[in-house]
## 1
Amino acid sequence: MAGTAEKISIANIITNAFGLLGRHAVVFFGFPLLLFGAPSLAITSLFGLEADFGNLDGPSSAYAIVFGYALAMAAVYVFLQGLLMLVAVQDLARQPNSLANCITQAVRNLPGLLGLGLVIIATFILIAAVMTLPVFGFSLQILSVQSLDGAPSMIVTTLAIILIGIIVFVYLSLMWMVAIPAKVVEPIGVFAALGRSRRLTAGSRRRLLLVGVILFFFNVAVSLPLGLIAQFGPVVEMLANVLGSAINIAFASALVASAYIELRAVKEGASTDELADVFA
């Protein structure tokens, strides 16, 4: 086992991520464009550029379509994440890639990945709800007495709660950063994947935070020019949004997969051969 004092290399993570994007550009960019672009084009062709559901038979039909679309996109997203993680980890483990095999494994892991996503989303929603309750209570109290005497304290409390919420959100995001690759690669259950990610990221979350900051600025650098291009009309806007999503998903997936490999190598001393054995 590698020494616990050894630290992950941000340079290795970024270098491996860009290497992945270069070697598997068709998969990392093509699949997001296909899986997100095709549904967007379908919605546009059915309902127009503004996606107006007002002509449907009642609001229930519109809600059903929106809910079904959201559910389908969630399934597409987790499938895409599973596929990209498998391709990335096999590449970084120097295991011969088989796209058909990766697709099969991603489909097989789809229920577990959906469960993992639901657990994470439900956790964040629960935390947000708990932190919102005090603010809601203060607001009701001020309205009931019809006085602004408590407004300053409520504002300070609200800002404090927002700050705490941001800290908790960032901490959990870092702690569970490699849950998806752990789930599809090892493979393990939903809660085991969360625990596995927690153990792998322990002691390395500050450096992983820097990786997250790099990802944030990369997203900004991609979104700004595409946002300017999107001003040339609704069709261009739709295409720019799809392209931006594909680029950001590709880079984020490559970074997470690279971080997973780096964490296993540093924390556990996992060699290339040991990682390759996972896919044997």
## 2
Amino acid sequence: ALEGLQGAKSFSLLALCKDNNSKEVASKFYSLLDLKKHQAVNVAQSAPYADIIVTKGTMFHTL
């Protein structure tokens, strides 16, 4: 699922979770929240239920 993401400035959570079952999607979403909590990533969402775009956070290189 991470092919093509290396070196990318951002990625889509929807694209990352493509072809995953609900348990895998929930696990990835929880991991994303944990990374956000530790400021390793920033997240942006344009509207409720819209795709979540993920970018590097201030602490990305420390984890």
## 3
Amino acid sequence: VKELLEKEKVEHETLAILGSNPARALKDIAKKEGFDLIVVGSRGLGSAASLLLGSVSRQVVVGAECDVLVVKK
């Protein structure tokens, strides 16, 4: 995705989020910086696995104040 954005000259910021709650950190940064869109990857574990394990992408989708694009890996 980063290469495509650079090729098309789309303004973007790439972040690597570390810590115990990456979904909260990503939502907080997006709100603070005024992001228009968050793009997150999904491992595609399926609905049962994501309910049991908790899904960062699902948490971001539910709580973000901007649009979220989930890209399946």
